[in-house]
Specification:
mainly beta, 11 strands, 0% helix, single chain, seven-stranded mixed sheet, 116 residues
Length: 116
């Protein structure tokens, strides 16, 4: 399984970025997809994702500003990030969790920097 994240960059506060993660190489029947982030000196934390039942979830600090979406035809997921804040600065990772096996898979990360 491979996950390839892209779309990060440098943006001013209040700006927008759209992250994309391309997923390939596996077939799963019960899985979740999500975005995580890790700021310097901090642990990796959940940002947004979708469960196997189709429900989407967001960490409270991004509710109303970030939007998770998926394109099954292209095997991609996206994270639309609006109204960005300096505290959103981090490396963003996409992840797939196979609920059946308990295995998780990670992309390489894409860096987002929000200047004040």
């Amino acid at each position: 399984v491979q996950l390839q994240a892209s779309g990060g960059g440098l943006v001013q506060a209040g700006g927008s970025l759209r992250l994309t993660c391309a997923v390939s190489g596996g077939t799963f029947s019960d899985y979740g997809l999500g975005w995580f982030r890790q700021a310097p000196g901090e642990q990796r934390s959940f940002v947004a994702g979708i469960s196997s039942d189709g429900s989407t979830h967001y960490t409270p600090s991004v509710e109303g500003r970030f939007t998770f979406s998926r394109d099954d035809a292209k095997n991609t997921i996206h994270l639309q990030m609006d109204s960005l804040r300096p505290e959103d600065t981090a490396v963003y990772y996409c992840s797939l969790v196979d609920y059946a096996s308990g295995n998780d898979y990670w992309g390489q990360g894409t860096e987002v920097t929000v200047s004040s």
